Amino acid sequence: MRPVRTFQVRPLIPEPLKPLEEIAYNLRWSWDHDTIALFRRLDRDLWESTGHNPVLMLNTISQETLLQAAEDETFLVQLDRVARDLESYMAIRGTLREKIGPSPRPLVAYFSMEFGLTECLPIYSGGLGVLAADHLKSSSDLALPLIGVGLLYQKGYFHQRLNPDGWQEEHYPTNDFSTLPVRLFRNEKGEPLRVVVDLAGMPAQVQFWRAQVGRVVLVLLDTNIPENPQEIQDVTDQLYGGDSETRIRQEILLGIGGRRVLQALSERPRVYHLNEGHSAFVCLERARILMKQAGLSFREARELIAATTAFTIHTPVPAGIDVFPQGLMERYFGAYWPELGLTREEFLDLGRVRSGDASEGFNMAVLAIRSSGRVNAVSRLHGYVSREVWKDLWPGVPSPEIPIAHVTNGAHPLSWISEEMRRLYDRHLGSRWALEGGDTRDWRRAEQIPGDELWRVHELRRERLVDFARRRLVEQLRRQGAGRGEIAAAEEILDPEALTIGFARRFATYKRATLLLHDLDRLAKILNAPGRPVQIIYGGKAHPRDDAGKALIRDIVHAARRPEFARRIVFLEDYDSVVARYLVEGCDVWLNTPRRPMEASGTSGMKAALNGALNLSIRDGWWDEAYSPRTGWAIGRGEQDHLDSPTLNRQEAGMLYTLLEQEVVPLFYTRGPDGIPRDWIAMMKSALGDLCPVFNTHRMVRQYVQDAYAPAEARRPLLEADNYRGARELAQWRERVLEAWPDVKVARIDADLPAQMSVGDGFEVKAWVLPGPLSAIDLNVQIVLGRVEENREIIQAQILPMTADGASSADGILFRAQIPLRQSGNQGFTIRILPRHELLLHPHHTGLILWAS
After folding, report:
1. Could you write out the DSSP letters of every residue in 146-178?
2. d(CA 309, CA 708)
3. CB of 285 closer than 8 Å to CB of 371
4. Which helix (H) or strand (E) holds 134?
5. Angle CA(421)–CA(424)–CA(425) in degrees, nearest 5?
6. 812: left (phi over 0), alpha (psi -120 to 50) or beta
7. Angle at the Cα of 403 (from 399 to 407), degrees rounded to 5?
8. Distance between CA 836 and CA 780 in Å, rounded?
9. 815 closest CA partner among 786, 852, 761, 846
10. Looking at 556-560, 606-610, 763-767, which range is the least confident one?
11. Closest residue by Cα to residue 794 from 828, 751, 759, 842
12. How many C-alpha atoms does 332 have within 13 Å on its Cβ side?
């Protein structure tokens, strides 16, 4: 029978257990093993069945269980210890805040489309969201004043189910916000706070939720409100769902709505950080507010916005960027660009690579780049790739000088290190390894960890991984209607003592998940070698519309059913943070086989390394800068980039098999009389000491503070002081230079070249420059000197400044420089001119450069 009404009855929390509620709503529990142990102890089965969600636990736990816990003295002692530890953690002292200043307002507003904080808050799809979450967690650990801004999705990302043929199917369970670790922001009357965002003439009511991430607040926007029309309610229905119209609505909500929410909360961040281009509309909203409040023009406002905005680009290919058609932009921004004082073409040019090109759509990465003073990629190699991808935004600028830097990603240590490994590190690395994260001195102590102790911990985690994989596979088969015999076989699949390879990530085709399956006969010999078994555990999701990625998953499932692989290959469905943790904590080798240079960074291998696993990877993303023979194995050297896909796949699969046959497997199974692989353990220790202090988000966040946040905060007063005098002057100067630049010329060059030159000699170069309406102070005249290749191009260039000597003539202003000769060989020089202003953030930020002809 059906009820006529439904209602929820919550358990009554006994007074001694009241601290549980505050603990449950602070997501620090997601990386604090003691807190997790507390909730497990309260009700282990309920902890698992609620998807590790303490808020849902406290909403559904039996009153009897709570009453028993309230009388359990040992439980109360543990609760008191966890509560006091959280209170101590929240008392900010002794970390980054002291270096930045004691301002109570957040220094940084961090915008991201997704945040992968924990499996019970499913508002993430993969690496971008997990990286964003780890950024918040490290900011919390380091006491960096920061506020996150994102969206709270009603359905979040999909759950993956495999049908009997191994084909991925998607299921979208609905999130019940009342049972998630988030709380609505409310006013003094207890009513939800709201802002309004216009979506093509439809006013969208937006409410917002607070997720407390340790010391950091994450604000999550939500349009699923009865007062909104259904199509507006659906804007926050699903992460990366729907069409371009849904996507532009979400990105307007994130950027423009996010800025309005910060204003409603009276939060005034000093610096903005855009994690990918999805949130770039926030730059337009900041400009609109500045224009209204300070009476600035759009160009004047942009100077301040660029100086205080950092943009991190994650994708290595233009196809991965959101590009909106002009018609869609007109529909959603036709009433907005007049508020910025812009014409239609001026507005659309903000998102075009080539100004005035009507064939281009509105590119969100271009908007973010044009609006940010600091742009960075997420690994050293990705920085090189990004400079090549976006070089058309800086015509005439040599690729190495394009202002796209890199901050290599990291992983948050305590979120990804197993409890057993954490205790081992506590004993041997000192007391501050987890807080500091990036202190090489702490991690160097890994060499002193007794080998047998390290190996016992690692073997325990492998055993737990195998047990977890068996349980997940049994559940998987039961859902598919498998027979009793198949389920019984799954209960004994894998070998807890065998060399275990982990491979888990998004199943995009460029990641080549099936490279290891290229030669099944050769692979079978490797996996089933007598006395040296090897096994592979796969996990990962394909995008719902990526049939090619789904086909890769099916190929792995089919291969796993072959008799020679029946106990050696497993695919675990519904990859999420839980599966990821078991894999990175328990595997021996982490495998990554992308087509170079398509992997921007990758962080799963970093998480495995934190647990002592060794990486076996293509030299792409982070591994290109991390690899050394001390710490793991590299497949190829990257020199095959030019090959067609079938040839490249065949060659690199062969290299992978050879590495397994000749190096990886023998090293693992070469044991002493005690049965311990001493040489393997030595390599584990080297990887811990070399990789862990570098490839973690504590180091990453510190680098952002040093390279982006602190310089932006220091620069801001220079532009704001005296009623934004600096911003106004810089905007006027930029406009004047843009107009005058066509009249700037290099009129004449004289070089007093000796007949013979040796290293240590030098000569003077003179250049006469016609400045047009500009003056010498507006110009940065430089010599570009370097070795000359056969194609007459200068390489390994060094830049030497030229100085105006005050003399001018019909040929223009005279500039001089002395060229020192420091290396032998065929060399050459040329002269170039850049605009110069003391407030210009980067010499190439005007996009203007003039080369001598």
Report:
1. EEEEEE--SS-SPEEEE-TTS-EEEE-PPP-GG
2. 8
3. no
4. helix 127-141
5. 90
6. left
7. 105
8. 5
9. 852
10. 763-767
11. 828
12. 23
Assign 94 a pLDDT band (cuts: 50, 70, 90): low
Q: Specify the pLDDT at position 642.
A: 66
Q: Give CA–CA dist 321/366, Å, rounded.
A: 9
Pairing of strands 762-770, 745-751: antiparallel
- CA–CA gap between residue 338 and residue 642 (Å, rounded): 48
- Which among 697, 485, 754 is positioned nearest to 477, based on CA atoms? 485
What CA–CA distance (Å, rounded) separates 332 from 364? 14
Summarised one tens digit per residue, pLDDT across range 761-799 is: 888 899 999 999 999 999 999 999 988 887 778 887 889
φ/ψ region of 679 (left if φ > 0, alpha if ψ in -120 to 50, else beta) reads alpha
Amino acid, res. 392: D
AA letter at 149 = V
Contact 367, 350 (CB under 8 A): yes
**536 closest CA partner among 665, 669, 684:** 665
What SS3 state is found at 431?
coil
- pTM for the model stands at 0.95
For residue 296, count other CB atoms closer than 10 A to its CB. Answer: 21
**Pairing mode, strands 183-184 and 405-406:** unpaired
Q: What are phi and psi of 405, to 5 degrees?
A: -90, -165
Percentage of residues in the chain having pLDDT higher than 70: 97
- Give the tokens for residue 814: 């005279």
Radius of gyration, alpha carbons of the chain: 29
Show the DSSP H helices in 440-590 as ranges. 440-444, 451-479, 484-490, 520-527, 547-560, 577-586
- Residue 225's SS3 state is coil
Q: Say if residue 644's pLDDT is above 60.
A: yes
Contact 413, 696 (CB under 8 A): yes
Residues contacting 438, CB < 8 A, separation 6+: 693, 694, 696, 698, 699, 702
Q: DSSP characters for 659-699?
A: HIIIIIHHHHH---TTS--HHHHHHHHHHHHHHTTTSBHHH
Give the 3-state secondary structure of 600-611.
CCCCHHHHHHHC
Q: Is 445 exposed, middle or buried (0-12, 13-18, 19+ CB in 10 A)?
A: middle
How far is residue 642's CA from residue 619's CA, in Å, rounded to a whole number? 15
CB 108 within 8 A of CB 269: yes
For residues 550 and 516, the answer to whether their CB atoms sit within 8 Å is: no
Are the C-beta atoms of residues 290 and 732 closer than 8 Å to each other? no
Asked if 405 contacts 379 with a C-beta cutoff of 8 angstroms, the reply is no
833 sits in which H/E element: strand 827-835
What DSSP line would sit under 287-343, residue for residue?
Answer: HHHHHHHH---HHHHHHHHHHTEEEE---SSGGGS-EE-HHHHHHHHTTTGGGGT--
Q: Which amino acid is at 5?
A: R
Contact call for residues 168 and 160 (beta carbons, < 8 A): yes
Query: What's the token pair of residue 554?
Result: 């099916």
- Token pair in block for residue 74: 């040992």
User: Domains in the chain, start-ordered, CATH in brackets?
Assistant: 15-90 (no CATH), 451-479+491-695 (3.40.50.2000), 744-851 (2.60.40)
Please state, in angstroms and rounded to a whole number, the distance separating the CA atoms of residues 590 and 509.
19
Length of the chain: 853
Per DSSP, the three-state class of 591 is: strand
pLDDT tens for residues 60-76?
999 999 999 999 999 99
Q: Between vectors from CA 643 to CA 642 and to CA 644, what angle results, nearest 5°?
A: 125
Distance of CA 265 to the CA centre of its chain: 26
- Rounded Cα–Cα distance for residues 470 and 463 (Å): 11
